[in-house]
C-alpha cells in the first residue's frame, strides 16, 4: 500500500467498501445542506408572511374586505393567510344557512381552521425527518467504514513477519477519514434540525394563538343580531 497519506490518495486507494461509505456520506451531506438552505428560506418566508398578515388583520380592516383582497392578490397564500381564508370561507358559508345556529357556525369554522393549521405545520415539517436521519445515522455509517478499514489493516499484517507503523498507517488513516466524513455530515444536520424544529414550534404557537383570537372574533360576529 502506498505511503502517501494525502487525503486524495487515501480516498483513491481505499478499499471499495470504504469508498462506498464515503460516497454515501458525501451524498447525504450534499442533500442535507440543500435541504438546510431550502428550509431556511421557507421558514423565513413563513415568519415574514405571518408578520405582514397579522399587521393587516389587526389594522381594523373589515374581515370580508381582507378575504376578498387575499383571494384577488396574484400570489400563493400560506401560513396564517390560509388559516384565515379557510375559517372565514366556512364561517360565511354556514352563516348563510338559517337552520344552523351561531355556535354550530363557529364550530364549523373552527374545524376547518384546525385542518388548515395542521396542513401548514405539516408543510413546514417537510424534510426535517431527513435531517434527523442524516444526523443520527451518519456517525454510525462512518464508524462502519472505520471498522472495515482497520480490519483490512490488521488483516494485512498476517502476511508479513515484521509489522511496522508504516504498513498500517495508510489503512488506519483511510478508516479515520470515514469517521471524519460521518461527523462532517452529521453535525450540520443535527444543528439545523434542532434550530428549525424550535422555529417551527414558535410558528405553531403563533398560528394557534391567531386561530384562537380569530375564533373569538367569529364568535362575536356569529351572535350579532
TrEMBL record:
Q: Please give the chief subcellular localization of this protein.
A: membrane
What are the TM regions of this chain, as residue ranges? 20-38, 128-151, 171-193
User: Per the record's keyword annotation, is Cell division included, yes or no?
Assistant: yes
Mind telling me which Pfam families this protein's record contains? MotA_ExbB
Q: Which UniProt keywords apply?
A: Cell cycle, Cell division, Cell inner membrane, Cell membrane, Membrane, Transmembrane, Transmembrane helix
The segment(s) forming the MotA/TolQ/ExbB proton channel domain are 81-208
Q: How does it sit in the membrane?
A: Multi-pass membrane protein
Location of the protein in the cell: Cell inner membrane; Cell membrane
Q: How does it assemble?
A: The Tol-Pal system is composed of five core proteins: the inner membrane proteins TolA, TolQ and TolR, the periplasmic protein TolB and the outer membrane protein Pal. They form a network linking the inner and outer membranes and the peptidoglycan layer.
Q: What does this protein do?
A: Part of the Tol-Pal system, which plays a role in outer membrane invagination during cell division and is important for maintaining outer membrane integrity.
The entry's family comment says: Belongs to the ExbB/TolQ family.
NCBIfam families linked to this entry: tolQ
The protein, known as: Tol-Pal system protein TolQ
What organism does the record attribute this protein to?
Candidatus Methylocalor cossyra
Q: What is the lineage of its organism?
A: Bacteria, Pseudomonadati, Pseudomonadota, Gammaproteobacteria, Methylococcales
Amino acid at each position: 500500500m502506498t505511503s502517501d497519506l494525502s487525503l486524495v490518495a487515501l480516498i483513491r486507494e481505499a478499499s471499495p467498501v470504504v469508498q462506498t461509505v464515503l460516497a454515501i456520506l458525501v451524498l447525504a451531506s450534499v442533500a442535507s445542506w440543500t435541504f438546510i438552505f431550502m428550509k431556511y428560506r421557507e421558514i423565513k418566508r413563513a415568519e415574514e408572511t405571518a408578520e405582514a398578515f397579522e399587521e393587516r388583520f389587526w389594522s381594523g380592516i373589515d374581515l370580508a374586505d381582507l378575504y376578498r383582497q387575499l383571494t384577488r392578490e396574484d400570489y400563493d397564500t400560506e401560513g396564517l393567510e390560509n388559516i384565515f381564508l379557510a375559517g372565514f370561507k366556512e364561517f360565511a358559508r354556514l352563516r348563510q344557512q338559517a337552520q344552523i345556529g351561531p355556535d354550530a357556525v363557529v364550530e364549523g369554522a373552527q374545524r376547518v381552521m384546525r385542518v388548515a393549521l395542521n396542513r401548514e405545520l405539516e408543510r413546514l415539517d417537510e424534510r426535517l425527518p431527513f435531517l434527523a436521519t442524516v444526523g443520527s445515522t451518519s456517525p454510525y455509517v462512518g464508524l462502519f467504514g472505520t471498522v472495515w478499514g482497520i480490519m483490512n489493516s490488521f488483516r494485512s499484517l498476517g502476511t508479513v513477519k515484521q509489522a511496522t507503523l508504516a504498513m498500517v498507517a495508510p489503512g488506519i488513516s483511510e478508516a479515520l477519514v470515514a469517521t471524519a466524513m460521518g461527523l462532517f455530515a452529521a453535525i450540520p444536520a443535527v444543528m439545523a434540525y434542532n434550530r428549525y424544529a424550535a422555529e417551527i414550534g414558535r410558528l405553531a404557537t403563533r398560528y394557534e394563538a391567531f386561530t384562537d383570537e380569530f375564533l373569538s372574533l367569529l364568535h362575536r360576529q356569529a351572535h350579532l343580531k
